């Protein structure tokens, strides 16, 4: 009976082709399951730690104020110790870093960086910092799913898709929103809509949601909000609400970047200490502003008419989020945006409530505020719409949500020139995330999909042997020469050169050939050949001295012309 390893070459060749396949779907589901298990462990750890001092998870108002201020100080200390143990250079965290790795490293995440996210994220969320669990979740999901591809030595183009599957499963497992998770990955992380990517990401998202439902149940975070259908006369006011939300998104993004700029030269431990002190001080006075989003959302539900307290909570939540993210606390930004959006929407509901003396619309406006702020801050309008539909579990929110989302997004982009907070952070950290059109196309095709074995290999031949073989070659067949040079092995191509022959020199021209792993994509082939625009590379599997095929420049050129006419 053949071992499973014997099937790997066929699997690797199949996944090198950018097409929908059953194999990729199954691997995507496996990666999604691994990602979901990591997120479940992550969430259970947070709940378990908070269970020692909180009556309800993420409700920091349930602990005495004389002890509450100690939590962020202790959390900052422990996060700093973890950073010291794993090394500062690995302390790049959150969704922006994942986007960078997706574009430049096929979604493969550094291990020590992942440790920072897992343990640092648990401590940050358990101790009351205003950060979201989706930041560590995205990182852990990408690491878990891409590990499957690395273990099986799959082509990097499929490893990238598996990383996307892990991210979708992780978000679905964090918020129980499989459809929004899938859209978020395609709209924000991968930034593309291709069917061979879409299908496995969708399946992984389903797996993530099912896994979290088995452990945490089917509850939705916004299900407690009473959502009712809005009459048509609300719609002009919703446009005004969208403008306000768009302006608030610009204010938040701008101040977050200011925080990053002001404190970029501070030592990490000092930044974490400052974040702990500010969180302790504000949390002492405004406990509902602490944590991810649950406390703020619950307060908005319980006190929809307490305008002065809602304004105080919004200000406190914004300050704590800016300080936590801006000073380097590990965690995400989406959770706090949910909380601030719900509070902002509840505040905006006061105007129609005063006009008709009815507060029953506050739940609807709260959900609309969340949707608009997510769209305007993250530049993810479609993901925001789907997220609010799933979290609210109410279809009546769709039409007003579309109006608020579009208004908020257009306002923040056109009138405030507000960019996606993720892209702005990437620019600030000088992490590349943009690909050339050629690289964007070629990263999706593995070398195993293109390589040919139309060549002859000679080991340490003399010139007479080289001439004999060259005389018998039929184009496009190539001659590949393997020479032992001391302790190393070098590969060359040999071909006739008429200009050298006329000058009286040898008429054979030798050119060094670079080897690439079978996991590489055609983008790496382009990087090796684009300067000369001729020649070839050889592909190896395990041993760099044993070629399994070659790829010529004319094959690369033909692929580019076929795909997008890029050359």
TrEMBL record:
<feature type="transmembrane region" description="Helical">
    <location>
        <begin position="397"/>
        <end position="416"/>
    </location>
</feature>
<dbReference type="InterPro" id="IPR050368">
    <property type="entry name" value="ClC-type_chloride_channel"/>
</dbReference>
<feature type="transmembrane region" description="Helical">
    <location>
        <begin position="109"/>
        <end position="131"/>
    </location>
</feature>
<keyword id="KW-0406">Ion transport</keyword>
<keyword id="KW-0472">Membrane</keyword>
<feature type="transmembrane region" description="Helical">
    <location>
        <begin position="197"/>
        <end position="216"/>
    </location>
</feature>
<feature type="transmembrane region" description="Helical">
    <location>
        <begin position="69"/>
        <end position="88"/>
    </location>
</feature>
<keyword id="KW-0407">Ion channel</keyword>
<dbReference type="GO" id="GO:0034707">
    <property type="term" value="C:chloride channel complex"/>
</dbReference>
<dbReference type="InterPro" id="IPR014743">
    <property type="entry name" value="Cl-channel_core"/>
</dbReference>
<dbReference type="InterPro" id="IPR001807">
    <property type="entry name" value="ClC"/>
</dbReference>
<keyword id="KW-0868">Chloride</keyword>
<protein>
    <submittedName>
        <fullName>Voltage-gated ClC-type chloride channel clcA</fullName>
    </submittedName>
</protein>
<feature type="transmembrane region" description="Helical">
    <location>
        <begin position="268"/>
        <end position="286"/>
    </location>
</feature>
<keyword id="KW-0869">Chloride channel</keyword>
<keyword id="KW-1133">Transmembrane helix</keyword>
<keyword id="KW-0812">Transmembrane</keyword>
<keyword id="KW-0813">Transport</keyword>
<feature type="transmembrane region" description="Helical">
    <location>
        <begin position="334"/>
        <end position="355"/>
    </location>
</feature>
<feature type="transmembrane region" description="Helical">
    <location>
        <begin position="306"/>
        <end position="327"/>
    </location>
</feature>
<feature type="transmembrane region" description="Helical">
    <location>
        <begin position="161"/>
        <end position="185"/>
    </location>
</feature>
<dbReference type="Pfam" id="PF00654">
    <property type="entry name" value="Voltage_CLC"/>
</dbReference>
<feature type="transmembrane region" description="Helical">
    <location>
        <begin position="21"/>
        <end position="49"/>
    </location>
</feature>
<feature type="transmembrane region" description="Helical">
    <location>
        <begin position="367"/>
        <end position="388"/>
    </location>
</feature>
<dbReference type="GO" id="GO:0005254">
    <property type="term" value="F:chloride channel activity"/>
</dbReference>
<feature type="transmembrane region" description="Helical">
    <location>
        <begin position="236"/>
        <end position="256"/>
    </location>
</feature>
């Amino acid at each position: 009976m053949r071992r499973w390893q014997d099937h790997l070459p066929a699997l690797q060749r199949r996944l090198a082709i950018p097409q929908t396949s059953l194999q990729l779907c199954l691997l995507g589901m496996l990666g999604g399951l691994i990602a979901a298990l990591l997120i479940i462990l992550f969430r259970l750890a947070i709940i378990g730690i908070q269970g020692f001092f909180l009556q309800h998870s993420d409700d920091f108002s349930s602990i005495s104020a004389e002890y509450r201020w100690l939590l962020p100080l202790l959390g900052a200390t422990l996060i700093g110790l973890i950073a010291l143990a794993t090394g500062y250079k690995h302390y790049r965290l959150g969704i922006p870093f994942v986007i960078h790795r997706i574009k430049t490293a096929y979604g493969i995440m550094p291990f020590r960086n992942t440790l920072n996210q897992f343990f640092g994220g648990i401590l940050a969320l358990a101790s009351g910092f205003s950060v979201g669990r989706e930041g560590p979740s995205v990182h852990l999901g990408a690491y878990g799913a891409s590990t499957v591809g690395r273990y099986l030595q799959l082509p990097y183009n499929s490893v990238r898709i598996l990383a996307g599957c892990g991210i979708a499963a992780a978000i679905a497992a964090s918020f129980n929103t499989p459809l929004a998770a899938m859209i978020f990955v395609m709209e924000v992380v991968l930034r593309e809509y291709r069917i061979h990517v879409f299908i496995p990401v969708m399946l992984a998202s389903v797996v993530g949601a099912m896994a979290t439902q088995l452990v945490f149940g089917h509850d939705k975070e916004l299900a407690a909000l009473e959502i009712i259908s809005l009459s048509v006369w609300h719609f002009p006011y919703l446009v005004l609400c969208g403008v306000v939300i768009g302006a608030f998104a610009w204010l938040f993004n701008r101040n977050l970047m200011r925080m990053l700029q002001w404190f970029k030269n501070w030592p990490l431990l000092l930044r974490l200490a400052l974040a702990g002190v500010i969180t302790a001080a504000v949390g002492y006075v405004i406990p509902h502003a602490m944590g991810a989003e649950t406390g703020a959302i619950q307060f908005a539900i319980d006190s929809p008419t307490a305008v002065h307290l809602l304004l105080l909570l919004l200000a406190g939540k914004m300050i704590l989020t800016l300080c936590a993210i801006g000073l380097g606390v590990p965690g995400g930004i989406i959770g706090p945006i949910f909380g601030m959006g719900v509070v902002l929407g509840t505040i905006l509901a006061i105007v129609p409530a005063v006009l008709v003396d009815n507060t029953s619309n506050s739940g609807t406006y709260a959900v609309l505020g969340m949707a608009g702020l997510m769209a305007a801050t993250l530049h993810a309008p479609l993901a925001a719409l789907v997220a609010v539909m799933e979290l609210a579990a109410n279809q009546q929110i769709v039409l007003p949500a579309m109006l608020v989302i579009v208004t908020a997004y257009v306002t923040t982009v056109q009138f405030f020139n507000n960019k996606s907070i993720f892209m702005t952070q990437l620019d600030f950290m000088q992490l590349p995330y943009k690909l050339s059109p050629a690289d964007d196309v070629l990263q999706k095709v593995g070398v195993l999909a293109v390589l040919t074995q139309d060549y002859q290999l000679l080991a340490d031949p003399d010139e007479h042997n080289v001439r004999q073989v060259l005389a018998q070659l039929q184009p496009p067949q190539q001659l590949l020469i393997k020479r032992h040079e001391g302790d190393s092995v070098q590969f060359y191509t040999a071909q006739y050169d008429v200009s050298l022959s006329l000058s009286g020199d040898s008429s054979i021209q030798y050119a060094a050939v670079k080897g690439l792993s079978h996991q590489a994509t055609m983008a790496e082939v382009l990087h090796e050949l684009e300067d000369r625009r001729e020649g070839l590379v050889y592909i190896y599997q395990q041993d760099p001295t044993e070629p399994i095929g070659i790829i010529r420049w004319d094959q690369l050129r033909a692929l580019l012309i076929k795909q997008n006419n890029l050359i």
